[in-house]
Amino acid sequence: MVIIEVLILATSDVHSPENLQLFLESLNQVNVNPHVVIFAGDMVKRNNVVALRPVINAVKQKFPGTRIVSVFGNEEFLGYEELYMSVYREITWLNDSYLRDTFGGEEVCIIGTRGALDKLTTWQQRKMPLLEKRYKELPGKIEEIARQLRALKCNKIILVSHYGVTYKNLVGEDPQTHPYLACSRLEQVLEKGLVDIVIHGHAHMGALEVIEVHGVTVYNVSLPARRKLVLIST
């Protein structure tokens, strides 16, 4: 049996233009060609839609023809998804949806979501109280998608979420902020063996790049935390 490895290049929280230079320097250090590039949200700062262009152009110049898959973060404001999708058609956007494709000769299913939080921020409570309902419902929605993909015999399922899915890899962050960084209820999806890898961002001070949670490999690819782009082989 031939084991095929899929090489993923992942990052998040570029907050372009804030961390654009760090992103470009980190991209320049990558000396392999990934099968797919994944953005785990917050690629621009405060919904600065045009600031995503230099990020995409740099990736396309470095890896022409390589597919870019992205989810939205909290800095790509809720309600602007269609705008991002129309301006950046070269990106495969996932928004509580999935992609099933072949990379490097291996079939991979990627579920993409903003994710959820255990608690609304003060701003969200004031401006977007309906998010609480969405956050409560999201773990069930992701579980349903993952079950569908398992039923379709997808052997490699990757969950990409901007927000974290566990508190276990938030070492380095103030414990009081954990409910605003992740949705611990999404651990149920991991515990049930419905995904194989999780890629997330948002935790800028998370000291752990990768851990195992219920046998699932979980990566925090936040650029401010990692100070590099993260290569993942699966």
Structure, explained:
By secondary structure, the protein is α/β, with parallel strands linked by helices. It is 26% helix and 23% strand. The chain has a single domain (7-233), classed as Metallo-dependent phosphatases (Purple Acid Phosphatase, chain A, domain 2, 4-Layer Sandwich). It has helices spanning 20-28, 53-62, 81-87, 122-127, 131-151, 187-191, 223-226; strands at 7-11, 36-39, 67-70, 91-93, 97-103, 106-113, 157-161, 197-200, 210-213, 216-220, 230-233. The protein has a 6-stranded mixed β-sheet with strand order 5-6-7-8-10-9. A 5-stranded mixed β-sheet has the order 4-3-2-1-11, with no helix packed on it. Helix 1 packs parallel to helix 2 (53-62). The longest helix is centred in the middle third of the chain and has 21 residues, at 131-151. The mean pLDDT is 95.
Rg, nearest Å: 16 Å
Tell me the number of strands. Answer: 11
What is the CATH H-level superfamily? Metallo-dependent phosphatases
Order of helices and strands: EHEHEHEEEHHEHEEEHE
Largest sheet: 6 strands, mixed
Which ranges are low-confidence, i.e. pLDDT below 50, for 5 or more consecutive residues? none
Measured between the Cα atoms of the first and last residue, the distance is: 16 Å
Helix and strand content put the structural class at alpha/beta
How do the strands of the widest beta sheet line up side by side? 5-6-7-8-10-9
- Looking at the structure, the CATH topology is Purple Acid Phosphatase, chain A, domain 2
CATH 2nd-level architecture: 4-Layer Sandwich
Output mean pLDDT.
Answer: 95
Give the helix level as a range of percent. Answer: 25-40%
